[in-house]
Design goal:
alpha/beta, Rossmann fold, seven-stranded mixed beta sheet
Length: about 200
């Protein structure tokens, strides 16, 4: 049995924080895991900006509700699920992702959670598990699943290395330069071919 593990943002949907930056005009929110490799550092920075600007969960959810998957992503995912088990491993939050999961046909999503105050302000975040993407892939392999992982950012590279095959999807040049061992795909069709090449589909 084979399992494909996909990152969410940058692979299936646009970057939520960049969309929030576009909507609010706060350029500081454009920083993502494509730019900052330390996730806790990035999230502490984001939470400070949200607090300073008075942006709560409702404001972010309004932005996400207006988003759509990347062109071709829903069809790619549906086709992939006809042949393989698929798990989305993301560093987003359940409180953000629901509208996008609906548009993608409710795939399985493993991600993190938020602590929200009575006024709707985001107080903190709770990791599912430190390095949860890699550890999930490792657990699947211990269960004798063959695995392929695909993502676009620094926070995906450990799961790509853990999988039987790892593929970068539309990554920034800095990630490609730092991790030349991974295949690179720029279109969902190419990503599907790369997955099939590893898993024999």
């Amino acid at each position: 049995m084979e399992v494909v593990c996909l990152d969410l943002e940058g692979v299936l949907v646009p970057e939520i924080w960049i969309k929030l930056a576009d909507h609010t005009g706060i350029d500081e929110l454009r920083a993502t895991t494509r730019d900052v490799s330390d996730y806790d550092e990035l999230m502490r920075f984001r939470l400070n900006v949200l607090d300073r600007e008075g942006l709560g969960l409702a404001a972010i959810q309004r932005v996400v509700t207006g988003m759509a998957p990347l062109e071709g992503a829903a069809g790619f995912l549906a086709s992939l699920r006809e042949r393989y088990q698929v798990i989305i491993l993301s560093d987003t939050f359940y409180e953000f992702a629901r509208p996008l999961m609906r548009q993608l046909g409710w795939p399985t999503l493993f991600c993190h959670g938020l602590s929200v105050g009575p006024d709707g302000g985001i107080l903190d975040y709770q990791l599912r598990l430190v390095d949860h993407k890699r550890k999930t892939v490792a657990a699947l392999r211990e269960l004798n699943f063959r695995t392929v992982a695909a993502g676009d950012s620094y926070n995906d590279t450990s799961m790509l290395a853990e999988a039987d095959g790892g593929i970068l999807f539309r990554p920034p040049a800095s990630v490609v330069a730092e991790f030349p061992e991974f295949a690179v795909a720029t279109e969902h069709h190419d990503l599907r071919q790369g997955i099939n090449a590893v898993l024999g589909g």
